[in-house]
Structure formats: C-alpha cells, structure tokens
Amino acid sequence: MLKSRLITAMILIPLVIIALFWLPPIGFKILVLAICMLAAWEWGQFAGFMHPSQRIWVAVLFGLLLSLMSLSTPSYHHDLYQPGVSLSLWISLSWWALALLLVLFYPSSAALWRQSRFLRLAFGALTLVPFFWGMVALRQYHYDSDHFAGAWWLLFVMLLVWGADSGAYMFGRLFGRHKLAPKVSPGKTWEGFAGGLLCSAVIAWGFSLLAPLTVSSETLVICAVIATLASVLGDLTESMFKREAGIKDSGQLIPGHGGILDRIDSLTAAVPVFACLLLLVFHIA
Question: Burial code of 89-123, b = ≥16 C-beta within 10 A, e = fewer?
C-alpha cells in the first residue's frame, strides 16, 4: 500500500505542477471541471445512488451546472468579482460552518439528512461548486499581468494541505493517543492534528520566503491557518459521509489513494475558504 501511494504521488505531483503553471485558463478550467465531475460521480454513493448509471447522471448534472455557470460568466479573468463566483465563495464559508456542526454532533446530526437524497446531493453541490470556482478564481488571479501569480497561490494552498495531511499521519503514528473525532474517523488524533498544523506553519513560512507572494505576513498567516483548519474539516466531513454510506474509499481510480474525493476532500474546503479570505475578505490587490 505505502509503495503504491509513493509511486502514485511521484507521478501525480509533477503533473499537478505542470497543470498549474502551463495550462492556459480555459484548459485549466476544463481540467477542474473534469475532476469535479469525477468527484460528483463518487459523491453519488453518498446520496444513495449505488448503480453506476445513476451516478453517471449525477456527474453529468454537476457538469452541466458548472458549465452553465461558466458560460454565464463572461471574460472571467478580467474580473475576479463576478456575482456568481463571489456568491459561491461566500456560500462555502456558510456550508463549512454547517459541516462543522454536522461533524461535531455526528451521528445524531445524520438524522436530519440521512433519509433525504436531495439534501445529500445539495451537500455535494455546496462542496464541489465553490471548490470549482475557488480553483478557477485563484488560478486566474492577475492573469493579465502575470500568468503565474495565481498558480503560485494554488500551489501554496496545495502544499499547506499536503503538509497538514502528511504531518498529521506522521505525528499520529508516532505520538497519537487522544482521538480527534472517534465517531467520524477513529484513526485521527489530536497529536496528529497538532503535527499537521505545525508542518503547515513551516511550509507557509518557507513558501513566503521563497515564492513571489505579494501579501503581508499577517494576512498570509491568517489565511493559511484558517485554510489548514478547513482542510481538516473537509477530510472529516468526507469521512462522515463515507461512514454513513458504509464505504471505506470513495473509489478506486487512484492506485493506493482510493478515489478522487479521497484525494481532494481536504482541498474542497481549503481552496474556496482560502480564495474567499484572500480575494473577498482581505481584497488582496
């Protein structure tokens, strides 16, 4: 398992960096759209659609929704504050605040949505639509004047999430004693959580020294800390839905890593929250 995870990571990480820095905006948007459709196909299980044909329709519907939103957003890279985009990012803050309550009070909270396919699909939309626009908004940040400015921001968020995930795994294995959320994800510990935050802090510090990020240290720290906390919540939320659906992995698409959702669950929270803070709260110019 570990060997296949390492091999897959060694293949995927260079591909991610190539996509971030060298794909044009339309190509990057299409790529993220495809990833969201695959994630929606897997989310269909959480909503109770177990037959592949049903889940294909879920993926198609999500793809149509995102495509229609994209077509109704003209010249997006010239204006980061299109109403549909900014609304999606603001909504993500509300959704993840609600998701925190669902996780904290699970399994009692599941009584509110367990029997409703509509609600579970709505939760999927609240997760994937802001993620799509967060990715696009950050990548197209100042694209007219600097083709790589947004790529650096996205790489920063991804490194934060990967650092938190890796740090939590290592510290949890070495020092884990106290369960973080035993009813949702029994393997996670407070020690691992602290280790993940520490690794993210080191990455944020190092990245701020080496990468061309035009933002004050205070703003960067606030955005980084909240995005890292959101990434942990994204992971726990997907674990909650998987536990409720009775599945271990969202899919088998990525060898050693499970499905698409298993790889982007933390990013689905971290990316839109970070984008909202950076672009709409602090109004980074």
Answer: bebbbebbeebbebbeebeebeeebeeeeeebbeb
